[in-house]
Amino acid sequence: MAVARPQRAMTTAVPAEAKAVAMVGRTELGTISIADGVVSKIAARAAAENPDAGAAAVRMLGRAVPGAGHLGLRGTDLAGLPKTSVDVDGSKAFLTLEISVRWPASVPVVTEQVRSHLRRRVNDLTGLSVEEVHIVVADLVTDIARPPRVR
User: Against a cut of 0.70, is the pTM above it?
Assistant: First the structure.
């Protein structure tokens, strides 16, 4: 007597690129798009999470404007948000940042930390793949306030 086995449903393999595109902006209910400005704010906050990186002073004609903070403009501040710009193309993001770095931290080390952290945070929060991160180190912060003395 022959026993009939149930047939398995056939599955087709979907390439990894097709899965990524389908997951980022398209759902069963429609398309989700994230504005460049939103990604720019996320990137600025993520960059500011590094204690050795921060906002760089406003530059005019290639020179930093001293005292820009007193005029209501962005000044060099490790606690401030750096200037960011983002181009979103489908499921890919291209970031540009202008930061200051704390002295005596290594500029290559800080920029690599910021770059890898940005890729991770932007991907986690938006689902976008960060293809490029251009970082301009516009200022080196040397006048760090000394810690208060204990009496």
Answer: no
118 and 46 Cβ atoms separated by less than 8 Å: yes
- Would residue 135 count as lying in a domain? yes
| Residue-wise pLDDT tens digits, 32-85 | 888 999 999 999 999 999 988 888 866 555 555 555 544 444 556 677 888 899
Structural domain total, the chain: 1
With tokens 């906002």, the residue in question is 55
State the DSSP string of 52-97: TEEEPPPEETTEE-TTGGGGTS---BTTSPPEEEEEEETTEEEEEE
**Any domain includes 58:** yes
Domain hosting 104: range is 33-141
The residues pairing with 86 across neighbouring beta strands, listed in sequence order, are 95
